[in-house]
Design a protein that fits this description.
about 150 residues; four-stranded antiparallel beta sheet; 7 strands; globular
């Protein structure tokens, strides 16, 4: 079966919220307190047209939330990691804009390696306030190459 990447609909909030909750509930950075709260957060992002989902068979297996050039979230179902779903979601986002940026925890070496493989490069914080607020996070940027 092949993965279909498409814009999320309101009916995808439950599946996306479940993926978000499964991925974050054990994280010390998690601001969510329940699966219902995760579903609600995904519902809001879907209403804002931020979410693209990856569907395998009839089930949502991953999602990317993008606000303009900022990737706000990228999660795949734990049972589907390493199958190219994240790459397909990133590729779809790259097809829409010429530049993307995101932040990921410095301690998340798997995510940092993933973004590097997708062509993202780490950048330094822009100012002192950002350095203080995000000292435990790394900012990455991807820019479309311009033909000479």
């Amino acid at each position: 079966m092949s993965v279909v990447v498409r814009a999320a609909t309101p009916l995808d909030a439950g599946a996306a919220g479940d993926i978000l909750w499964q991925s974050l509930r054990a994280s010390p950075e998690c601001d969510l307190h329940s699966a219902a709260e995760a579903i609600g957060a995904c519902g809001v992002m879907i209403e804002r047209n931020w979410i693209t989902v990856a569907v395998l068979g009839a089930a949502v297996r991953g999602f990317l939330a993008r606000d303009g050039q900022e990737i706000c979230a990228l999660y795949t179902a734990p049972t589907c990691r390493g199958q190219g779903i994240g790459r397909q979601l990133i590729d779809e986002a790259k097809s829409k804009v010429s530049r993307l940026h995101l932040q990921t925890p410095k301690a998340n070496t798997g995510a940092r390696r993933f973004y590097a493989r997708q062509g993202f490069v780490p950048v330094s914080p822009v100012n002192r306030v950002t350095t203080v607020v995000t000292s435990h996070r790394q900012t990455y940027v991807w820019q479309k190459e311009i033909a000479a």
